[in-house]
Amino acid sequence: MGDLEEQGSDAGRGTVRPAGAPLFLVGFMASGKSTVGRLVAARLGWEFRDLDRVIADAAGRTIPEIFAAEGEEGFRRRETEAVAEATALRNAVIATGGGAACREPNLSRMLAAGHVVALAVSPQEVVRRTQGRSNRPLLDGAADPLAAATALLQARAPFYARAHATIQTQDLQPDEVAAAVMRVLEANQS
């Protein structure tokens, strides 16, 4: 069974969020944000939003198509707009893209607006989970997917570490991760 860690920045720790403050799930690609987000939203009776899906729907293109047409910077601009809109939501669980929390304006907005929980996963597990079906522009086509995932995760780790809590997902099933997220939320509401 995986380890649960409630670590990260002290920003927002011990601060009781208003009822219905949004829950942002952040973390590396394939950490389980969308799967766990749907489970947590169902348990809470809240809306679920996958920011990558929101961005793709608004653009009328897939994420890889946005990257191809607009580059990573174009995608990140769209992502920043989607994060800003999501911070105004109430009673919502938001699964962010892996890089959303790695831009200071996005992370600051999420930390101030609601609960931020990072789902952690190893680079080896990322490669295993995405093997042959990644559809992830920053990993696809890499000569060495493990090296690419490792380098990208190392660069993003300081941002993820600022979440209000971190849950190691490595050896947990999605329902176990969802239960851990619920415990974090309950602890922050009391």
Molecular structure report:
- It is a single chain.
- By secondary structure, this protein is of the alpha/beta class.
- It has a single domain, classed as Rossmann fold.
- Helices cover 50% and strands 13% of the residues.
- The protein contains seven helices and six strands.
- It has helices spanning 33-44, 51-59, 63-86, 104-113, 123-130, 145-160, 174-189, and strands spanning 4-5, 23-27, 47-50, 92-95, 115-120, 165-168.
- The chain has a six-stranded mixed sheet, sandwiched between helices.
- Helix 5 (123-130) packs across helix 6 (145-160).
- The radius of gyration is 16 Å and the shape is globular.
- The chain starts with a strand and ends with a helix.
- 41% of the residues are buried.
Secondary-structure blueprint of this entry?
Blueprint: E1 4-5, E2 23-27, H1 33-44, E3 47-50, H2 51-59, H3 63-86, E4 92-95, H4 104-113, E5 115-120, H5 123-130, H6 145-160, E6 165-168, H7 174-189
Parallel strand pairs: 2-4, 2-5, 3-4, 5-6
Antiparallel strand pairs: 1-6
